Amino acid sequence: MYPELLNHIIRYVQLTADEEQLLCEKLEYIKVKKKEFLLEPGKLCQGSYFVVKGLVRQFFLDDKLNEKIIQFGLENWWIADQDSLLNHQPSGFYIQAIEYSELLLLTERNRILLFEQIPRLECYFRLMIQIAFVASQRRLCYIFTQNDEERYRHFSARFPGFMQRVPQYMLASYLGFTPQFLSRLRAKKT
Amino acid sequence: MYPELLNHIIRYVQLTADEEQLLCEKLEYIKVKKKEFLLEPGKLCQGSYFVVKGLVRQFFLDDKLNEKIIQFGLENWWIADQDSLLNHQPSGFYIQAIEYSELLLLTERNRILLFEQIPRLECYFRLMIQIAFVASQRRLCYIFTQNDEERYRHFSARFPGFMQRVPQYMLASYLGFTPQFLSRLRAKKT
After folding, report:
1. Which pTM value belongs to this model?
2. By the 8 A CB rule, do A46 and A107 touch?
3. How many Å apart are CA A138 and CA A143, to the nearest integer?
4. How far apart are CA B83 and CA B61, in angstroms?
5. CB atoms within 10 A of CB B131
6. Which of B126, B134, B144 lies closest to A68 in CB terms?
């Protein structure tokens, strides 16, 4: 049994003990070293990863081979290439551990199977993707309205603990500016 | 009965005749004139709107009162402020008809009620939000990798019919550049 995940699910939907058992039997516990990959471009995304411990990132390389971070995955968060899962097509993304991480993999095949057996699980995942969609829309709004410095201040105020764990260049990539700009900002602050 | 919506649902999940009936009884048919609002900032989003005919847009005003378009809603597409629905908080957005439009409103209360009665409907909406999330992530990737001109060319190639229906200044707002830039681009093309 995986208490971290079950405690997370219970915030949104109620499962019976049998359903919890059934779900846990379908999960695979995965440990990855820092910098290890869970997904690489050209491969099908295997399923959805729940972060039990650690921190991962989803990114792609642009034409000039710059890393562009599209999403982070922290404890109690699901991460997956939804495009690859939904359209059964090879991914264009990397998913990589930033720290040593422990995750639960729910393959897409098992997820769909479980939806038939545990309808409330579909409700849980509907909510998870709705939350992710809202976060993605908010990010678009910030890109539209905030300049680089505002985006940085806003992000540090909302996720102070997170800021300590992520290397500067990754944070710059996620917020869409150069590491040099971030260094100048941090120097200004201190 | 609303054939446009039922034909859309059938692409993803199978409902029984009774379930279709039940769903249709919960919908409200809405007709809006060009420029009429379905949602305004400070109000709760009532629910999800399925576009039967016409075209709507979701936008907000930035500090300088510039309109920033976050999403369009065309025929066979759902539009809603997911943030307002999910977090039961007043919206920061407008949803407005660009043309005379006909829509089906499914209030959030009815949607949640129906999920209990028609579990497959939850599957349908889980897929709808998953598709919307993928579109939103792709848009982020384009913002990260394409310059203004590339973004315009990419968008016109993918949605040629749509380009004819949307006023230039809205297209510019959606793609994140000035109407002047768009005029220059179009002049260059012809």
Report:
1. 0.93
2. yes
3. 9
4. 17
5. 19
6. B144
DSSP state of B78: E
Q: pLDDT tens for residues A133-142?
A: 999 999 989 8
Identify whether the C-beta of residue B4 lies closer than 8 Å to the C-beta of residue B109: no
B136 vs A131: CB contact, 8 Å cut-off? no
What pLDDT is recorded for position A66? 87
- Asked if the Cβ–Cβ distance from B129 to A134 is below 8 Å, we say no
Minimal Cα distance from B117: which residue of A?
A119
Residues of B in contact with A80 (CB under 8 A): none
Q: How far apart are CA B96 and CA B38, in angstroms?
A: 6
CA nearest A5: which of A79, A74, A81, A104?
Answer: A104
> Which amino acid does the sequence have at A25?
E
Among the listed residues B61, B122, B173, B182, the one whose alpha carbon sits nearest the alpha carbon of residue A130: B122
In contact, B63 and A141? CB cutoff 8 Å: no
C-alpha closest to that of B127 among A135, A71, A1, A85: A85
What is the average per-residue pLDDT within A138-151? 87
Residue A120 predicted with pLDDT over 80? yes
Interface size between A and B, measured as CB pairs under 8 A: 86
CA distance to A48, B6, B82, per residue, from A131 (Å): 15, 26, 8
The mean-pLDDT minimum among A107-111, B3-7, B115-119, B182-186 falls in B182-186
Residue-wise pLDDT for B63-106, tens only, equals 888 899 999 999 999 999 999 999 999 999 999 999 999 999 99
